Amino acid sequence: MSLAFTVEASDGAARLGRLETAHGTVKTPAFMPVGTQAAVKGLTVDTVRASGAQVVLGNTYHLMLRPGAERIARLGGLHRFMNWPGPILTDSGGFQVMSLARLRTVADDGVVFRAHTDGTRHHLTPAGAVEIQHALGSDVTMVLDECTPYPASEAEAAASMRRSMRWAALSKAAFVPRPGHGIFGIVQGGVFPGLRAESAAALVEIGFDGYAVGGLAVGEGQARMLAVLDGLGGALPAERPRYLMGVGTPDDIVEAVRRGIDLFDCVLPTRSGRTARAYTSAGTLNMRNARHAEDPAPLDAACACPTCAGYSRAYLHHLFRCGEMLGPILLSQHNLFFYQRLMADLRAAIAAGRLADFRTA
Predict the structure, then answer these.
(1) Per-residue model confidence as pLDDT tens digits over 308-355
(2) What is the pTM for the complete model shown?
(3) Looking at domain 4-266, which of 3.30.300.30, 3.20.20.105, 3.40.50.300, 3.40.50.1260 is its CATH number?
(4) How are the residues of the chain apportioned to helix, strand and coil, as percentages rounded to the nearest 5?
């Protein structure tokens, strides 16, 4: 394996780990801010680093369209291009092809689609997705997969999953091993336990540096999502990292950590920040609500982020009411700090053996 991963402590199924990459160590459980287009929306790299983020996520689909993987490679790779010195994981683009692209056609050799940006035609193959991520310089490459929609019948989910497993084998064959760089497989199969088990077994047989769980948080609800994770219990190698893609709320993250998940990504911290939703130690707040108009208190008295240290709830309310762009920036900053503090607290709870008493608010 090209990526070293060590489980240093456990508390039930939860693990405290270290993932060693070419661009540094990631202490797990860890949350990856989403930098889809080589930027975490509204935030500078310095802010992202100051929040405690160790690794960020980029996206193959978006970056292959704009500015292009070849251009990024000529400019020194994605790390230099976006001025991020730490590890980068890149999603393969499969989800975005299914959700954004126009006139897509899925076949066993990949997917043909027209870009949502300008209508140009592209053919993305498993090998091509891996080659693009290699050009970007990703520390962690993801296999190309087909994200099974929800709801889907068992037959539809089975056909989609088995196609993804064929793509996984082709992706692994195209990956060029080098120290500190690895490739993750993605478990699919919808909400059907048998299909998830079949998918996990197929990926383990191929052999990957880590294993992701995809196709969740797409409308199935938390109970079904957690049931899938419960069902995967012993199906994934204990010595390799596990990544739950696109999840989620603070409560989702805590429950998934309890079930042995090590890595997460989600747009919620910044997307919520842009829509006036704040995550705090006392629960969520809507900063557009009139009750904040004359409140001189910080957003979260338990938070040491620059937003809470320097600005009142009244000021944040004012910014959102008048449409000032500083409002989404300050709230996105706070939310990202909140998520990173959540992950640090989870790591501390696992190390101390007190995860059973852990609460998000």
Answers:
(1) 999 999 999 999 999 999 999 999 999 999 999 999 999 999 999 999
(2) 0.97
(3) 3.20.20.105
(4) 40, 20, 35
